[in-house]
Design goal:
Structural class: mainly alpha
Number of helices: 7
Number of strands: 3
Largest sheet: 3 strands, antiparallel
Strand order of the largest sheet: 1-3-2
Radius of gyration: 24 Å
Length: about 140
């Protein structure tokens, strides 16, 4: 009570409406969308998807096509891409056994974004390298 009168029922403050790139999607999809963006933007995913763009590859050929990727990381990346439905794994009953990985139509739909990101990085490599060097000279290492 305030001055002998009941205080009006107050409504809890509503959270602000989402803004930014996820604002167009329902909030309940937010977590999955963040996971998908994290997967699609992962450096190994970008390089593996790009390597598979030309067609199916055997594991060893795929590993050779992605500089710097370890066997463990390639296996993990392929497993996650298969889980998301972006890559298929086909085992052929041959001697010796042959396994190939290939983009699904869903995975192929990611090519434009992946290619654009790789092209952007290549185009701006020198400029970013210069900025990093200037920053590192000006900022003490922590």
């Amino acid at each position: 009570m305030e001055d002998g009168h009941l205080m009006e029922d107050r409504q809890p403050a509503r959270p602000a409406a989402p803004t930014g790139p996820c604002a167009a999607w329902p909030a309940e999809k937010g977590e999955t969308i963040r996971q998908i963006v994290e997967r699609a933007g992962d450096k190994w995913t970008v390089l593996v998807v790009s390597a598979l763009h030309a067609g199916p590859l055997r594991y060893t050929d795929l590993q050779r096509s992605v500089p710097g990727i370890s066997q463990r990381m390639l296996t993990h990346t392929l497993r996650q891409l298969r889980r998301d439905g972006l890559v298929t794994r086909t085992a052929y009953a041959e001697v010796p056994p042959r396994v190939e990985y290939e983009l699904t139509p869903l995975g192929a739909s990611l090519i434009a974004a992946v290619t654009a990101l790789i092209d952007w990085a290549g185009t701006h490599h020198d400029e970013i390298h210069t900025h990093r060097a200037r920053f590192d000279e000006a900022e003490p290492a922590s």
